[in-house]
Design goal:
This protein is an alpha/beta fold. It contains 12 helices and 12 strands.
């Protein structure tokens, strides 16, 4: 049963999540390039921000940085074809600090759970507030307030589900169509458009990634906010934003963008368990539902998966044992 699988493990026991001893953080006075390097160097998608008293004030992730990039470009009227003028103004980012970009995307409110909470409680907080990660806090023994001791991410939860897929229950073997997933508009971009336009779409729609289509509307790739981290070691990272989406993806992933990755797509008759297993294996955050012509007709994110699992639990657990909403 999904209820037992998620309620019998605490957030402290979840693997693939950082613990207090190796918790990566940044200061509210750190510049955007410093935050960017911290994320990239440590291979993480988000990082807690601490104030002068070492107390957490929020989280910053790649989507927040994408929003910052887009805002600065638009504010300085540098979205035109003369990208060299933008490159000469990269000093703007050195004077933009973590305190400004904390939850700039309005997708990372600081809503924690306490140490010892069940994984089910963390998932409930995630789905209720539509957030991608939940900090775990405990009160400092010296009376200095709450301290972050862990950060529960959707990826870590999905990995745990993948390793224990059989314990989800037989209901997870149903097709996503039978489970109620519907067709819906997919945010996408043509592969010939500039990469900067793709990140602007993400910022405007408050999403982590979007589909990339070819000239016939067939899905060929996914571009996400975390793709930015692969270019950080280059001396003029922002020049790459003026490449086409196809060229950008090829450079970031060092493979031809036309080489379609089958793991990013699924069909309505695929089971939920199969999709979870594939997402874990491919380390991806979303899959696109496609029709017979490979045209995207929907998208399933980790958030959608956690939602359907919680819905199943609420529909099948006796009232006295139902998790708090």
């Amino acid at each position: 049963m999904a209820f037992n699988l998620l309620s019998n493990i605490t957030v402290d026991e979840l693997r693939n999540s950082p613990k207090s001893n190796d918790m990566i953080t940044v200061r509210n006075t750190d510049s955007i390039p410093t935050v960017f390097k911290t994320l990239s160097k440590n291979g993480i998608l988000s990082v807690p921000v601490l104030n002068e008293q070492n107390r957490p004030i929020g989280l910053v992730d790649y989507v927040d940085i994408v929003n910052c990039v887009v805002q600065i470009i638009n504010h300085t009227d540098l979205l035109g074809n003369d990208y060299y003028s933008f490159l000469e103004r990269e000093d703007l980012f050195n004077h933009t600090y973590a305190s400004y970009v904390t939850d700039l995307s309005q997708r990372n409110p600081f809503i924690p759970v306490v140490k010892g909470a069940s994984l089910l409680e963390a998932i409930t907080v995630m789905t209720k507030n539509q957030i991608n990660r939940v900090p775990v806090i405990e009160n400092n023994v010296n009376g200095e307030g709450a301290q972050i001791v862990n950060l529960i991410t959707q990826s870590a939860i999905l990995s745990y589900l993948g390793k224990n897929i059989e314990q989800l229950g037989k209901w997870s073997l149903k097709s996503i169509k039978d489970l109620g997933f519907k067709e819906k508009k997919v945010i996408s971009i043509d592969f010939n458009k500039r990469a900067l336009e793709a990140f602007e779409l993400m910022a405007n729609n408050k999403v982590n990634g979007i589909a990339v289509n070819d000239e016939k509307g067939h899905i060929i790739a996914n571009i996400s906010a975390r793709d930015l981290k692969e270019l950080l070691n280059e001396t003029r990272v922002f020049e790459n934003l003026y490449l086409s989406v196809g060229e950008f993806i090829s450079k970031v992933r060092q493979q031809d963008y036309k080489a379609v990755n089958p793991s990013i797509s699924c069909h309505m008759n695929d089971s939920l368990a199969n999709i979870i297993t594939r997402m874990v294996a491919a380390k991806i955050h979303r899959v696109y539902i496609i029709d017979e012509e490979r045209k995207p007709i929907g998208v399933i994110s980790i958030h959608d998966i956690l939602n359907i699992i919680l819905e199943n639990i609420n529909n099948n657990v006796p009232p006295t044992n139902k998790p708090m909403q």
